[in-house]
């Protein structure tokens, strides 16, 4: 048990435990609609996707899994989205035991809260936002689905709750075979889902700033400013690019009216950032749209939230470094603040490791299948960044490739947390430094 005393190792261990329990639950005959046992790889893949809040699936969630199976999936992405340690600490609070220093550190590690935030305060914020957002979105969706789509009260309520929790946790799971394509002309369905995804993709430190400092922008932390501005820029980029590139595509936005085009372009600019719902056929996207989606998925959302990817702040730091070099500035920074060299190294390390992992997975899958390279790359980035969007090749992958996707989903969910934390915590420095010598770059 020595390994579990280290919070950096504890987080992956608990995620693995959750995935294992989820796999067992989904392997039970009661979990499938026809009462048969799901194949082990199908159960493992679905469990990893749910705990990793990804949304990639091998089978249709709404028809393959029973009510028990769907409830298990919902529970898994609810736990995975909030974080194993967040839930564990809450259970400790409910049980009446105090918060030890180790509890606080561990919870902060999982939430990437390595600054001064108190674990208990963060927990209260997380759960109050979760209850408020999920309840509000669930009510809106349930009422709309029941009133406009002929669903019974029970079915509408379940679909509302499932999609609300999936949106809040950026999971992208849907009980519909075509995700949200059936609602592409309905802003009452798409807008609440989109707003829930944007909010939680900002990350809880930003929410904490918004709660404590409201719109007093000057008092926001540098992290919050970088996240909000970076998110806004990426959303605008995605919206404009998708609208321009898919405007005349007969398989996506082409047949829609102007209002629906704007609505779906906005929706699809949000989803590649982390969520995985789709209101149009992603497999019908033009190559240039896929290229923009690669970038949006790889960057992902805000740190210390339910989003995946390398994170917005990582991208912002790298952008600022490049900008400072181009302008000949001595230090890289934003908003009259400079970054520490350790932050720059962390951002570079996370990005290079992520790109290397995606490249290796894409190369392997391309070598054992005849699937189109753009589709394979899309699938690998989507898995690593826990997005869940797919061009439709997930179920066509051979078993070994599906195992690779499982590994990408797991590493993408807990690997970046672990690496970033290990880098932030740091290691004892050497009592000496080697002589300096430069080499030619570029």
Secondary structure elements and pairings:
Blueprint: H1 7-27, H2 40-51, H3 61-64, H4 67-82, H5 84-95, H6 101-110, H7 119-148, H8 153-168, H9 187-201, H10 204-213, H11 222-246, H12 258-270, H13 287-299, H14 312-326, E1 333-334, E2 337-338, H15 341-368, H16 373-384, H17 399-425
Antiparallel strand pairs: 1-2
Helix pairs in contact: 1-2, 1-4, 1-6, 1-17, 2-4, 2-17, 4-5, 4-8, 5-6, 7-8, 7-9, 8-9, 9-12, 11-12, 11-13, 11-14, 13-16, 14-15, 15-16, 15-17, 16-17
Membrane topology: Multi-pass membrane protein
Pfam family, one: TrkH
GO molecular function, one term: monoatomic cation transmembrane transporter activity
Report what the structure shows.
Keywords: Cell membrane, Ion transport, Membrane, Transmembrane, Transmembrane helix, Transport. Its main location: membrane. This protein has about 450 residues and is an all-alpha fold. It has one domain (about 1-425). The chain has 17 helices and two strands. It has a two-stranded antiparallel ribbon. Strand 1 and strand 2 (about 335-340) form a beta hairpin. It starts with 6 loop residues before the first helix and ends in a 17-residue tail after the last helix.
């Amino acid at each position: 048990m020595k390994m579990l005393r280290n919070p950096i190792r504890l987080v992956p261990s608990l995620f693995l435990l959750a995935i294992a329990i989820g796999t067992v639950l989904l392997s039970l005959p009661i979990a499938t609609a026809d009462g048969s046992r799901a194949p082990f790889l199908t159960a493992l893949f679905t469990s990893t996707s749910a705990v990793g809040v990804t949304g990639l699936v091998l089978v249709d969630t709404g028809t393959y899994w029973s009510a028990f199976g769907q409830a298990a999936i919902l529970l898994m992405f609810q736990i995975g989205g909030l974080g194993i340690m967040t839930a564990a600490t809450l259970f400790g609070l409910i049980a009446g035991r105090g918060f030890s220093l180790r509890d606080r550190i561990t919870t902060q590690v999982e939430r990437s809260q390595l600054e001064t935030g108190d674990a208990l305060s963060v927990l209260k914020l997380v759960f109050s936002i979760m209850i408020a957002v999920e309840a509000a979105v669930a009510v809106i969706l349930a009422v709309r689905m029941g009133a406009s789509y002929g669903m019974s009260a029970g079915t509408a309520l379940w679909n509302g709750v499932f999609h609300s929790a999936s949106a809040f946790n950026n999971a992208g799971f849907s009980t519909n075979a075509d995700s949200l394509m059936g609602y592409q002309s309905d802003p009452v369905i798409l807008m609440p889902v989109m707003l829930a995804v944007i909010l939680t993709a900002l990350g809880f430190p930003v929410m904490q700033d918004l709660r404590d400092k409201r719109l007093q922008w000057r008092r926001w932390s540098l992290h919050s400013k970088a996240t909000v501005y970076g998110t806004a820029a990426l959303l605008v980029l995605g919206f404009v690019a998708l609208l321009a590139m898919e405007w005349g595509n007969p398989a996506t936005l082409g047949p829609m009216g102007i209002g629906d085009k704007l609505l779906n372009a906005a929706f699809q600019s949000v989803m590649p950032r982390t969520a995985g719902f789709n209101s149009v056929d992603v497999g019908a996207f033009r190559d240039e749209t896929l290229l923009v989606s690669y970038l949006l998925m790889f960057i992902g959302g805000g740190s210390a939230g339910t989003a995946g990817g390398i994170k917005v702040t990582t991208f912002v730091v790298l952008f600022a470094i490049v900008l400072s070099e181009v302008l000949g500035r001595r230090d890289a920074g934003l908003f009259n603040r400079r970054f520490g060299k350790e932050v720059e190294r962390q951002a570079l390390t996370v990005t290079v490791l992520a790109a290397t992992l995606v490249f290796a997975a894409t190369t392997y899958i391309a070598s054992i299948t005849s699937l189109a390279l753009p589709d394979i790359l899309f699938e690998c980035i989507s898995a690593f960044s826990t997005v869940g969007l797919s061009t439709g090749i997930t179920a066509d992958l051979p078993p070994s490739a599906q195992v690779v996707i499982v590994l990408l989903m797991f590493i993408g969910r807990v690997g970046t947390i672990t690496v970033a934390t290990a880098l932030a915590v740091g290691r004892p420095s050497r009592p000496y430094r080697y002589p300096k010598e430069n080499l030619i770059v570029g």
